[in-house]
Design goal:
By secondary structure, the protein is α+β, with helices and mostly antiparallel strands. It is about 45% helix and about 25% strand. It starts with a helix and ends in a 5-residue tail after the last strand.
Length: about 140
């Protein structure tokens, strides 16, 4: 039931009419859509950048694992054969999972004459200064019968 006060307000605040534009506008404007697409593009580019970095990181870990296998194989080979290597440096290459890796063995004396220290370094041919894996072991002089 309208009171005198509400009737008085009605004179100054007439009910708002819905025009044709108000009735038809239910979606987003072109500008709002473009801003949303720009935000989405920035977010997706960041996601792709992270995914690319993870892929490179995974490949680096794979190469390092293969280099570790090469170094371990070299030490195991000398141990299994009972090698007593001359002091100095030996070089060669080995293939793991289709990847050719270079190795360098540095054999040095120890305070105990019955032992030799062997340090195996593994790297790629493209970057011999960047050692992927360095493994150290010891050779024991076997008594020959």
């Amino acid at each position: 039931m309208p009171t005198a006060h509400t009737h008085h307000l009605a004179k100054f605040c007439p009910p708002r009419r819905k025009n044709q534009r108000d009735i038809l506008q239910h979606g987003f404007t072109l500008l709002e859509s473009l801003v949303a697409l720009a935000i989405l593009a920035i977010a997706l580019s960041a996601v792709l950048r992270v995914a690319g970095a993870e892929t490179r990181h995974t490949e680096d870990l794979r190469i390092r694992l293969l280099a570790d296998w090469v170094a371990q194989n070299r030490l195991a080979l000398h141990t299994a054969q009972g090698d007593w290597l001359a002091v100095g440096t030996q070089k060669g290459e080995d293939t793991q999972a289709g990847i050719v890796l270079q190795w360098r063995e540095e054999i040095t004396v120890t305070p105990n004459p019955a032992f030799r220290r062997i340090e195996v370094s593994v790297f790629t041919a493209e970057d011999p200064e960047h050692v992927l894996r360095k493994l150290t072991g010891f050779l024991v002089a076997q008594k020959r019968r």
